[in-house]
Amino acid sequence: MHLYIARHGLAVPKDEDPNCPLSETGRRDVSRMASFLARTRPTIKRIIHSGKTRAAQTALIYAETLGPGRIVEEAILGLKPNDPTDPVADAVDAWTEDTMVVSHLPLVGKLVARLVTGSEHGAVAQFHPGAVACLTRGGNGDGWTIAWTMGPDLLGG
Questions:
Q1: Which residues are bridge partners to 102 per DSSP?
Q2: What is the C-alpha end-to-end distance of the chain, expressed in Å?
Q3: Cis-peptide, bond into residue 106, ω within 30° of zero
Q4: CA distance 95 to 97
Q5: Which pLDDT tens digit goes with each residue over 136-152?
């Protein structure tokens, strides 16, 4: 199974718009990342987001770019920036289909650390706006390993 953990794209500052939607740069970066990911032909079935505007917009760009058949859903709890990682980590262990989670710092970094090392403390991946980490389960016993990480800055343009 693959788990894609994505940070939302660059957002408009709160003083400009309290909902903090994606900026034009954020939309462009997420679109480029989604196009890159689409070329790998992922079998993502679900895209789950935090419910915040910028995360929902990011999730929809991925779903539209990856093509039909993806379910986009708002998480009931557990994907806000400062939420604990326990509920998400426990839920992930029960998933059997490739899934993408779209959330925020510091949660995305803590979640990857928790899944890979067992502790949310310590950095194992950087998450600039629009970055994605692909984790695989089972390559290292039953645990999670980082297959790759990618940010829009590595795509050029």
A1: 6, 49
A2: 31
A3: yes
A4: 6
A5: 997 666 789 999 999 99
Residues 6+ apart with CB under 8 A from 140: none
What's the confidence (pLDDT) of residue 140? 61
Mean pLDDT of 119-134: 94
> What is the length of the chain?
157
Give the pLDDT mean for 26-38. Answer: 97
Hey, how many other C-beta atoms are within 10 angstroms of the C-beta on 85? 21
What the chain holds in terms of domains, given with CATH numbers, is 2-155 (3.40.50.1240)
Report CA-CA distances (Å) from 39 to 28, 42, 55.
17, 8, 22
CA distances to 20, 53, 112 from 17, rounded to whole Å, are 5, 11, 30
Per-residue DSSP letter, 22:
B
